[in-house]
Specification:
Layout (H helix, E strand, L loop, with lengths): L3 E11 L4 E6 L4 H5 L3 E6 L2 E13 L2 E6 L5 H5 L5 E5 H7 L7 H4 L3 E4 L4 E10 L4 E7 L4 E5 L7 E3 L4 E4 L7
Parallel strand pairs: 7-12
Antiparallel strand pairs: 1-2, 1-6, 2-5, 3-4, 3-6, 4-5, 7-8, 8-9, 9-10, 11-12
Length: about 170
């Protein structure tokens, strides 16, 4: 069974011909504009929507779907999340890019092999991603997810190595 990942949300309509104003993840313009199909969730099912065109406008995408030609046809999707199959996203990831659900739960070790905690979440401060780590002392700390601090991520071994500079944890 295919696994789906959210890539955007229909925020509103744009114009009268069924074009959707879609919000999507910052810095993902190229990926989002390359999509030809997305899915919307209907109960437990994912229904496909073929994309006719995408254009960027301010910080949003204006998306025209093949089968939607008026505001009335689009309104039922207002507020709906747009999904793609996980395999589509995996194909576009670089070697040093990961899905959030791959990182959550991984154990954090310093460069000497000492366990420091584990990842409980990932966020973004506008400049870079941050790993939320629950330490051995049960505190949550934020670690910038940059190569200088996080030189190694090993999904198979379920661990992340960090350069534990003074004051980081």
């Amino acid at each position: 069974m295919a696994k789906y990942v959210s890539v955007g949300k229909i925020l509103n309509f744009h114009g009268i011909k069924g074009e959707a104003k879609v919000g999507f993840t910052k810095n993902q313009e190229e990926f989002f504009c390359s999509l030809t199909q997305v899915f919307v969730k209907d109960g437990n099912d994912y229904l496909p929507l073929e994309i006719e065109s995408i254009r960027l406008h301010k910080n949003f995408a204006l998306v025209k779907f093949d089968s939607i030609n008026s505001i009335n046809e689009l309104l039922k999707y207002k507020g709906a999340f747009l999904y793609v199959e996980e395999s589509v996203i995996r194909e576009s990831l670089d070697d040093d890019e990961f899905l959030i659900d791959e990182l959550v739960g991984l154990e954090i070790f310093d460069e000497n092999g000492k366990k420091l905690g584990f990842v409980v979440g990932v966020s973004n401060n506008g400049a870079n991603d941050l790993l939320s780590v629950k330490t051995n002392a049960k505190k949550i700390v934020l670690i910038p997810f940059v190569k200088a601090i996080v030189p190694e991520v090993n999904i198979n071994d379920k661990k992340i190595i960090v350069n534990n500079i003074e004051g980081l944890i």
